[in-house]
Amino acid sequence: MLRAKVNMKAKPHLSMSPNEAQPREKILLTALELFAEQGFERATVRQIARKAEVNISAISYYFGDKAGLYQAAFMESLGSPKDDIELFNDPNLSLEQALVGLFSGFTEPLKQDKLAQLCTRLHMREMVEPTGMWAQEIDNGIAPYHQALLIVLKKHLNLNKIDDDLHRLAMCIVAMGVHLFVGRDVIEKVCPKIIAGNGALNLTQERLVMFALSMIDAEKNRRKQVNA
Amino acid sequence: MLRAKVNMKAKPHLSMSPNEAQPREKILLTALELFAEQGFERATVRQIARKAEVNISAISYYFGDKAGLYQAAFMESLGSPKDDIELFNDPNLSLEQALVGLFSGFTEPLKQDKLAQLCTRLHMREMVEPTGMWAQEIDNGIAPYHQALLIVLKKHLNLNKIDDDLHRLAMCIVAMGVHLFVGRDVIEKVCPKIIAGNGALNLTQERLVMFALSMIDAEKNRRKQVNA
DNA sequence: GATTGACTCAAACGTTTGTTTGAATTTATA
DNA sequence: TATAAATTCAAACAAACGTTTGAGTCAATC
Fold it and tell me: Could you read off the pLDDT of A198-214 as tens digits, one per residue?
């Protein structure tokens, strides 16, 4: 079971030339990789230490225990939620621009950065296998994200309050982005070409935006008919 | 690590009055529950045995080992993929009817059957935490499912071949259904009302169908413009 | 050169894991 | 009832787990 431990040793070294081997960071990066690939339970501290080429006890030395290492890997790999939100939350953006910003938060990590992919995968994994900190991440990262999206949608639908159907719309829009990560194994088996390479990913993002726009439009029309 | 083991003992008892305690089935059901809730690694054989009220060694007696138990729980909880597919694959169905059938495969388990929920959760978990059998399940369950959906979409879009953009459409449609399970923790925190109770779930399913229809329509229009 | 503190290391710790054992018990068959 | 098979059980097994230990190395400071 994963318990939060706060009393981990703060990093005591201030030295280090930039390219020198920094065991703390090496452990952190390796842990992120193995936790993301295998999950908290399957990734063992011995495996992490071996791959990071450090002694086992370096882990407890720097991070207290395995849970502390996980927490550190999770937190330090975390881009500020505000960064993601601001990609689509700007009131000056058109609806399409906002959606492009929203989905680029999902497709960009797939394009470029292996590290970013690992971070995202680690987060997606938490959706199915919640550890202690996941609840906290929902509060601090996901809920504000969802809320910001709701406000964007509300504005473009000219609504004066957020109702359940707006939640449904937001959920369905986000689902398409989330599925790029969660359903990755399936996609790579069934239709790998739609996420293989930047060109294909750009096209996929275009389609996501188009689909989201069509969903918003459908919701708008539905409300028109209901209110008539 | 999870390895497939084939040489498990076939159930040797043919007896049993219907309501009698059947240890094998009791183990199987408990295992399904705990594997679905906690995953393969976290659910221990001792925990399963305790909850099922059987001796530990009953597990190896009936299923060989933990992996065998997992495999049995996974397989025996498996409705035939054909059943799911036939919900939307009938060529006589209208597009809307097909989509209703498609999404009811996701919403029905949420409505009624606790067992079905566990099965689905176990499957969704495999998406993020692939065990050995997951690849097999993709081949036998998911890929045909996706293929059947592609054919339905192809027919209603009047296409003569399946291309990447059809894959994108199919993926996005399925993503909405998948998210009901994968994003369950988030939904229950952010907008629990959209999946709380059969009424809300029926509405959610209605919206999924509406959104899917709008996406298909958008794709149709896009192709029209491209071909013009 | 001595002292201090940061860091590394091989080895061991106690637990828990999945699994096996072999006798005891129950059940079916004759 | 006698015999054999099926099933249960407490106990033990080796292996792997996360963690700790204490001596050791290295670099900086006095």
Answer: 999 999 999 999 999 99
Burial label for A47, CB within 10 Å (0-12, 13-18, 19+), is: middle
Which residue pairs from A82-86 have beta carbons closer than 8 angstroms and sit at least 24 positions apart in sequence?
A84/A141, A84/A145, A85/A144, A85/A145, A85/A148
Q: Protein contacts on strand D: list nucleotides below 7 Å from a Cβ.
A: 5-12, 16-22, 28
Residue B145 C-alpha, separation from nearest chain A C-alpha, in angstroms: 10
Q: What is the pLDDT of residue A161?
A: 96
In angstroms, the CA B111 to CA B113 distance is: 7
Strand, coil or helix: A186: helix
pLDDT digits (tens, 9 = 90+) for B167-214: 999 999 999 999 998 888 889 999 999 999 999 999 999 999 999 999
Kindly determine whether the C-beta of residue A47 is less than 7 Å away from any atom of nucleic acid strand D: yes
Q: Is the CB of B66 under 7 A from strand C?
A: yes
| Model confidence at B81: pLDDT above 80 | no
Nearest to B171 by CA among B147, B190, B203: B147
Q: Tens digits of per-residue pLDDT, A16-74?
A: 333 346 889 999 999 999 998 888 999 999 999 999 999 999 999 999 999 999 989 98
Which secondary-structure segment (H or E) carries A116?
Answer: helix A114-128
What does each C-alpha distance from A190 to A70, B144, B163 come to in angstroms? 32, 9, 12
Q: Estimate in Å the CA B202 to C1' C20 gap, whole number.
A: 51
The per-residue pLDDT for range A137-161, each reduced to its tens digit, is 788 888 999 999 999 999 999 999 9
The string over B65-92, giving b where at least 16 C-beta atoms fall within 10 Å of a residue's C-beta and e elsewhere, is: ebbbbbbbbbeebeeebeebbebbbeee
The distance from CA A11 to its chain's CA centroid, rounded to whole angstroms, is 26
Tell me how many residue pairs between chain A and chain B have CB atoms under 8 A apart.
168
CB contact at 8 A, B219 and B163: no
Collect all residues of chain A within an 8 Å Cβ-Cβ radius of residue B219: 207, 210-211
Does the C-beta of B57 come within 7 A of strand D? Answer: yes
